[in-house]
């Protein structure tokens, strides 16, 4: 999703800074983007920042150096995800829990707070968007993913809190600094290889939805129409029914990875 977003932004003339934890992969994406830029005769800069979002501690100097100078108009916090687990929270190690929270929450907080002074400066001259990629798991935790669900709920709260803090301090009176939490369902990516459908758009289609809905009103936005309808349906369902459906979908998608070797029928029976 991040790669698709970077491609879309450079095609629109944005300079981009892409982040990842593998320098070899980052360099390959950078070269691909630069080639696309040169072929289109655009004057666009592509920078890379290599840092492990699951590490739990980061230092701002490198990020500040990479973002010094140009106005920062769009920040998209795409990092996130978790391994599917077959055991409850009491079976998860400290390292597992810290890694999930760092990858999905703490790293996004670090990036946002590091860039916030520059974002305020840009907002004095024009619109700025900070977009945090959320997940439907924040609405109803799938089996064994309570920490992942909590990380997305925390991310939503921080996006709201940033907006509230700016209003309380009397800044951003013109609304130029806009922080949003994106409600995201299934998207076809390298790690989610299910067949693309209306409910599972390709990354390329989804990032177009994101940019199209970037200025939509409200602090919580579902860029994809089907994802938005899914949120509405989930919120209407009784809690236990929603839990059963979430469990059933996990088993259908991940099988023994979720059940720990149990049969699909046995797990479906247990979850109901």
From TrEMBL:
Where does the protein end up? Endoplasmic reticulum
Keywords (alphabetical) are:
NADP, Oxidoreductase
Q: Which InterPro entries match?
A: NAD(P)-bd_dom_sf, Sc_DH/Rdtase_CS, SDR_fam, VLCFA-Steroid_DH
The GO cellular component terms are: endoplasmic reticulum
Judging by the UniProt lineage, the source's domain of life is: Eukaryota
Q: Which PROSITE patterns match?
A: ADH_SHORT
Q: Which Pfam families does the record match to this protein?
A: adh_short
Gene3D superfamilies attached to this UniProt entry: NAD(P)-binding Rossmann-like Domain
Q: Is-annotated flag, keyword NADP?
A: yes
From the UniProt record, which GO molecular function terms apply? oxidoreductase activity
Q: Does the keyword Cell cycle apply?
A: no
Family of this protein: Belongs to the short-chain dehydrogenases/reductases (SDR) family.
Q: What is this protein called?
A: NAD(P)-binding protein
Specify the species. Answer: Exidia glandulosa HHB12029
Traced from the root, the source organism's taxonomic lineage reads:
Eukaryota, Fungi, Dikarya, Basidiomycota, Agaricomycotina
């Amino acid at each position: 999703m991040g790669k698709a977003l970077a491609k879309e932004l450079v095609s629109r003339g944005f300079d981009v800074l892409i982040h990842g934890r593998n320098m070899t992969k980052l360099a390959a994406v950078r070269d691909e983007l630069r080639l696309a830029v040169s072929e289109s005769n655009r004057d666009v800069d592509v920078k890379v920042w290599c840092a492990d979002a699951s590490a739990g501690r980061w230092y701002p100097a490198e990020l500040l150096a990479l973002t010094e100078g140009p106005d920062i108009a769009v920040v998209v916090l795409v990092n996130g995800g978790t391994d599917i687990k077959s055991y409850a929270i009491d079976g998860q190690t400290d390292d597992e829990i810290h890694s999930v929270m760092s990858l999905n929450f703490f790293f996004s907080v670090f990036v946002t707070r590091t860039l916030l002074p520059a974002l305020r400066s840009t907002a004095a001259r024009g619109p700025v968007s900070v977009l945090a990629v959320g997940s439907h798991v924040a609405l109803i935790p799938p089996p064994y993913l309570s920490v992942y669900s909590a990380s997305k709920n925390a991310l939503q709260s921080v996006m709201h809190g940033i907006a509230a803090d700016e209003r309380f301090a009397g800044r951003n009176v013109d609304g130029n600094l806009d922080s949003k939490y994106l409600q995201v369902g299934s998207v076809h990516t390298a790690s989610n290889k299910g067949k693309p459908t209306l409910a599972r758009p390709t990354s390329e289609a989804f990032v177009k939805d994101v940019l199209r809905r970037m200025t939509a009103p409200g602090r919580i936005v579902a860029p994809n129409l089907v994802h938005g309808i899914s949120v509405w349906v989930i919120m209407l369902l009784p809690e236990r029914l929603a839990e059963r459906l979430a469990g059933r979908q996990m088993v259908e998608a991940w099988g023994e990875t979720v059940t720990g070797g149990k049969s699909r029928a046995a797990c479906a029976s247990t979850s109901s």
